Each structure stands twice: as C-alpha cells, then as structure tokens.
Amino acid sequence: MFEKMMSWMTDVFAPKVNKMAKNPWVASVQSSILTAMPMIFIGSFATILSIVKDYWKGFPDLSLLSTFSFGLFSLFLAYLIPEAVMNNKGHKGISKQAGLAGLAFFLILVFPSITAEGRISFDLNTFGTAGMIAALIAGLFVGVIMNLFSKWKFIGEDSPIPDFVATWFNTLIPITLILLVGWLFTFELNINLYDVVNSLFAPLIHLGQGFWGFVLINFLGFAFLYTFGISSWVLYPVTSAIALPAIAQNQANFEAGRAVTSIFTNEAGALFLIGGGGATLALVIMLSFMAKSQRLKMIGKASLIPAIFNINEPVVFGAPIVFNPILMVPMWINGIVGPALTWLVMKIGFVPIPYKPFQLWYLPTVIQGWIVTESVRGILFVVILFVISWLIYYPFFKIYDKQAVKQDMELLEEE
User: Fold this and answer.
1) Looking at per-residue confidence, does 295 or 207 come out higher?
2) How many CB atoms lie within 10 A of CB 294?
3) 117 or 366, which is more confident?
4) 29: region left, alpha or beta (phi > 0 left; psi from -120 to 50 alpha)
5) Least crowded by CB within 10 Å, which of 21, 124, 236, 390?
6) What are the backbone dihedrals phi and psi of residue 268, each rounded to the nearest 5 degrees, phi first?
7) Other CB atoms closer than 10 Å to residue 177's CB: what's the count?
8) Torsion angles phi and psi, residue 121, rounded to 5
9) Least confident span in 42-46, 171-175, 387-391
10) Mean pLDDT of all residues belonging to the chain
C-alpha cells in the first residue's frame, strides 16, 4: 500500500503540482509576493526597534517605517501582479502599463471617499495586508484583460511608428475598460468591491484560523509536499492570503485594546519551524554528532549552520528526506504535532498570540520565540517543541543510520 502511494506521488502527483507551480498565473502571484518581501522585512525591523523602545523610553518611535513598508503591501501587489503576468505571458512591452492599470484599479476597488472640494481619502488599512486578497483579485483581473487585448493591436509590430507610441495606443482600450469596470461598481452602483471580495474569501480565512485548517495547511506546505520535493512556496499565495491579513488584524486589535485572536500568522508558524519545515534541526544535530555513517555525518555537518538559521534544503535533499520512506514519516509527524501544539497553547493563552509583524524567519527559532510572543513562555515553548521533535526523529534516525552504515560498507567492498 505504502509503495503504491509512493509510486503515485512520485510519478503522478508531484509532477502535476510542480507543473501547476510553473503556471504563469500562479507563478506571477508567487513572484510578486517574493518581490515585495523586502518591504515586509522592513516592517520586521520596525518590530525589533519597537522592542528597544519598550526598554529605552528615549528611543525614537519608528513605527512609521512599518506603515510605509509592510503597511503598503497590497498597494505594491496591485502593481506587481499584472506586471508579472504580462512578463510571464510574453507581453513584456506592456508590463509596466499593466502594473499602472492594476494600481489604479485597486485604488478604485478600495472604495475611496471623494469630497465636493475634490479631496480624496483612503482607509490606510486597505493598503496593508488587510487588502491583500483584494489586491490579488484586482491584479489578476487586470492581467486577464491586458492579456486578452494583447492579441488585438491597433498598431502592428511592423509599423514605422515608434514602439513606445504604439504601446500607448495598443493599451488605451484595455486600460479604459478596466477603469470603467471600477468606476461602474464603485461610483455608479455604489458597490464596495473591496468588501465584496473579502466577504467571498471569508470562509478561507475562517478555515485557516480554525484548528484543523491551521494544522492541515501547515502540514501540507511544510512537511507532506516538501517530502516529495515540492517546495512550500507552492502554497505561499494561499498561506499569505490568510496569514498576512491576520497579523495586520491582530496589530489593529491590540492597538484598539481588543483581544488578539488570529493564530494563523507567519509569526506563529515560525515557532514550530525549528530548523525549517518539519522541525529538522534535531535531525541535523543527530546526523552531525551521533551518526556512525561517515556519509551522514558529513551531510549533517554541512547542513548544521543553515539549519540553525532555518534553511533545511541541504538536509532535505542531501540526507535525503525527500522520497525517503524512513525519514519522511517523522517529518510528517512533526508537521502535524508542531502546528497542533502551537494552535492549542495559543488558544488556551499559555503562549501569547503574535500581534506585531516579524518575518525574519532566518533568525534562530528560539530568538524568534521571544520576539514574536514577547514572552519567556514563547522561548520555553520552542525548547519543548525541539525536545519533542528530537524524540520523534531519534528512532527513525537510528534505523536510517544503521542502514547507511551497511550501505557504506558495501560501497567500500565494491571499491
């Protein structure tokens, strides 16, 4: 039974998922989020600086660094997604125009208020991760329209008219159509598309914030799919659509004196990714200092420094864990136990739910445990998870090490 499942995952499932990840539409969302990641990092630095201010009252308030970086994340996506779609669909000549159209459409989508005097105002929250789903939909809609109209051009490529002039005229109709759609819904029908989009995706958010959704999504992304060589980035558009608005909502709730309730955040997930997906730091330490197989010992030592900073590709593909029935199982178990315990301890209040954006995931997990929870209990919980991951990996490590020693001896005999 297990062999049949492995064969199906290897020959059928994994190739299809990897093909899906390379789809130009999915790839555009992924690349856009990754392009905007430095702005999230700046917001994370602002979080660190806010901790300094807690202990040093004279330290300047640099929270606006987060406001004008992490706080404009959806605005950035509204430009980047249609631009990426055009590039991935082979229409690079109109990619920037598509990005500008995405930006304009998103600004209409978030239902601005315009006074008789001509003053326009926006809810700043809609520009941050709270508006991320709306930005995704707006960006993809613009991408669809621009891609569709790219097949019909007023001015062909063989025209003597300069290319930049041809681009002006060839993009007039699609961009006008995009803006007319936004104008019709927002200013004529008085329909708040921002609220409509968010309400349509509310079930997804609700699912992710529940126990089973939190455990299942994290298990699939950081353990199960990973053991078949499928990167966790495949699910990043889904997890980001849940986690980034959640941390923004938590921050808003905290500042307003309300309860912080959203557990599915990247900050909470950082607690159980000790050494990377599947909590592999314990396994790397075993390989480095306890393996009898010289081959495994060498792989462990080569993977140790990256693992401390939560980069585990060297051990996942080097040990390997990928397509390795012995090491896949403990990674799956950790992929369930870590998220399950994290959700439970935060739900009962033993560990505080994060409310500040912090996505410097390459910092050692124990440090993140203190920063994202602002509690010694966060550190204690990370240590407990590490011990649990050690106990889970240990018997499988012993089996695999014994098998590797035997294989090493056979290789030496053949030489």
Assistant:
1) 295
2) 11
3) 366
4) alpha
5) 124
6) -70, -40
7) 14
8) -135, 145
9) 42-46
10) 85
What pLDDT digit, counting tens, does each position of 247-303 carry?
888 988 998 899 999 999 999 999 999 999 999 999 999 999 999 999 899 999 988
The tokens for 338 are 């870590």
Please check whether residue 271 is in contact with residue 291, taking contact to mean a CB–CB distance below 8 angstroms: no
Q: What amino acid is encoded at 65 in this protein? A: L
CA–CA dist 108, 152 (Å, integer): 26
Spatial neighbors of 55 by CB under 8 A, at least 6 apart, are none
3-state secondary structure of 114: strand
Tokens of 274: 């000790």
Q: Does a cis peptide bond (omega within 30 degrees of 0) precede residue 339?
A: no
Query: What is the model's pLDDT at position 18?
Result: 65
CA dihedral in degrees (342, 334, 225, 295; nearest 10)? Answer: 140
* pLDDT single digits (tens) 134-155: 888 899 999 999 998 887 765 5
Distance in angstroms (rounded) separating the CA atoms of residues 275 and 149: 47
Question: CB of 88 within 8 A of CB of 28?
Answer: yes
Q: Which residue has the tokens 């936004």?
A: 182
3-state secondary structure of 120: strand
Instruction: Say how many Å lie between the first and final Cα of the chain, rounded.
Output: 36
d(CA 311, CA 102): 34
